Amino acid sequence: MKYLFLSVLSFGLLINSFSQNLPVNQDSKLITYTEVVKTEGSADALFTKAHKWFFSYYKNPNNVVKESANHKIVARPRFKILNPPDKKGIQTMGGIVLYSFNVIFKDGRYKYTITNIEWKQNSKYPVERWLDKTAASYKPKYEFYLQQVNKEITKNIEQLNKAISKAPKKAEEDW
After folding, report:
1. Which pLDDT tens digit goes with each residue over 133-150?
2. CA 4 to CA 154: how far, in whole Å?
3. 137 in any annotated domain
4. Domain that holds residue 80
5. 141, part of any domain
6. Which helix (H) or strand (E) holds 147?
7. Residues 11, 16, 20, 25: is their CA dihedral positive or negative?
8. 3-class DSSP state of 126
9. Mean per-residue pLDDT for 56-79?
10. Is 124 inside any structural domain?
11. Please, are residues 58 and 173 in contact by the beta-carbon 8 Å criterion?
């Protein structure tokens, strides 16, 4: 029992400190992941690599990618989040999270912006509402949801950066 209490307490402390580390835009007050990444390649080459990545990374890319032209990709992906484990360790579905994932390209660099992160409900539900611990509707599981959102989006960013920075394969000479 003592170990269970300590585990729950440490999980609670970990969760409570997590939401303060999310990238919140000071102007819009929205959770926003954005960066300009410098890399080798023309805008065309970088756009092509990213386009290939979007169409290989997402299960239904035609539904995810809303615009893909003029050195710009606009996407609206989604992913599932889970509720915290119950007493038996079973996790149930917590819902679907949607977000905007935009990438623009210039020679030698690209900029990604991930924002407008929403919990799919009957009406728009920005996940920034999960940050307000003083709200009457606040639930401790929202911290767990925020961790999943951050993990998924961070994974997307890492995979995009990896795909774009990968050097193109050189054709071998056929002797």
Report:
1. 999 999 999 999 999 999
2. 30
3. yes
4. 23-165
5. yes
6. helix 141-165
7. positive
8. strand
9. 96
10. yes
11. no
